[in-house]
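Repro case for the chain-ordering regression, as requested:
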Amino acid sequence: METRYEQKDAPRAKRGVLTFLALLALLCVMILISAGMGYIHIAPADVLKVILSRLTGSQRHLAGIDKVVPYVIWQVRLPRILTAAIVGSGLSISGVFFQGILLNPLADPYTLGVSAGAAFGASIALLLELPFLGVYAVPLFAFVGALLTLLFVLSISSFEGRIASNNLILAGIIVATILSAGISFIKYVADEQVSVIIFWLLGSFSSRTWIDVFLTFGIVTVGGLFCLYFARDLNVMALGDRIALSLGVQASRARVMLLIAASLIAAGCVAVSGIIGFVGLVIPHLMRFVVGSDNRVLIPASALLGGSLLLFADTITRAVLPHEIPIGVLTALIGGPVFCYIFRKHRRVMIHG
Amino acid sequence: MDRPVFELSGLRFSFGRRVVLDGIDLAFEPGRFHGIVGPNGSGKTTLLMLMLGFYQPEAGQIHFRGEDLAALPKRRLAREIALVPQDFSINFDFSVRDVVTMGRYPYMPRFSAPSREEAGKVTSVLEEMGIAGIADRSVLALSGGEKQWVVFARALAQDTPVLLLDEATSNMDIHHTLYALDRVSRRVRTGKTVIGVFHDLNLAAMYCDRLIFMSDGRVLAEGETEKIFREEMIEKTFGVRGTILKHPLTGDKQVIFRKESTR
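-- result from build under test --
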């Protein structure tokens, strides 16, 4: 008997490693292909040469390549591509944590009203047109709006120092509803700015710069590593607070800490890209089917797949469709039906075992 | 006599304005099976949660092996005290083996896969509990009683000197109930301490060395099961008139009731 189960364990671990390598390869290939796609078509080999010459600082890889190509790749496409991939990763990591902490498979990074808060903040910035903050006005206001909303939701849902999942979800919905009424009002008074606000709310990666790349990379990496450190605690929290404590995990404390970390990641992503739905909801579900529910594996796997998929969606809207449509619309159009499918399948498993 | 595992003195606890426990003084000797019985709302579960450190007492003290429980690091306590709770939920499709492996988390580094030794301990519990064959099945696909069984197995895998059972067999059929408590009893004989809340008085009488009768947040009486498991005690605690018989083979006391015997 014993040997049989040890044998069964080995392929599972191997499958985890293979899945990682496959996802990593997928992301790298996606970046190369995407960087070559667009108004000017560039061969993947040339893309590689440009990246190589940039990283090594030598010009000799660029022999025989048109002078405009390095500029297009390095200054125009890569910042956008990397931002999209990082935001996809960030939203996926955040989604894993929201679902795990709230013990609700339907939770996503926006459950606590982070998106509504960011949208409200961004709308105000767009309405007031704050010239002294330049291009940073919108992301800054969006980020602050998301944080204030988060703190408010946390504070109204805590009773005697404890926060129950259901209270959090309810409080998030209430606050988001109020904020969306506020956004509607801002749109109403915004006159000609209204189209700018609507466009921002739908999300976009167009004209991202390296600064956006570094900002999101910083937030997603720091937040992601912090969350990953507590991945095993999140496993235990799935069995309830009492069992978690008996296994050495103080769920009530971990919950607040991790909610804040996951919301910060989401807020950072939203501030840079606008509101992009369904990534944080669907990716964790997809990956659970492949690698199971152990968050130590699920988190990095979701980050890799989320990066690839959001980059895929952004490449379609940027380089395939005749006109660029907002990325948030596209992810909802792709993610919505996928989620319907998962939802049906998941519930069937729950009912029929 | 060995030093008590738990010493509770002057314990008081309230939920809001409702006093749930008051004036609790108890000592739990090691190597014994302690049972807690009492009507609904008498504070049994709350008492266990205080001993786990899940709630903090409003007044009074809890000492674990002579040390203040609240001051002990949670990670260390996880190697000392395991719990099978009354209710729990599992919302994600962990496999049976995943859940039982969680019992070994307090002994393993955060990111490493189980070592050969740890995996072996998990496997031996899976086999002891007869679930090695479904180890890779998702716990979501199990029935309520089976889930409780897996959660029980996880607590056994934790292999702690102290085990807290809160209605730990409430969803199990009679075969699984007796099997689970037999496995626990065997561990008591090797020196482990078990403290269990029971609704079923006969299970408590059968398995517990000592019994604590609770009512309305207070301890009515405590003592050796043989001495304290009496008809008057049951009537005083539950308001039910029963008849105590001895099992013809083992001599264990059991209580039987007739219809309309509640006061």
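Ordering looks correct now. Residues 30-53+74-256 of chain B form a domain with the Rossmann fold fold (CATH 3.40.50.300).
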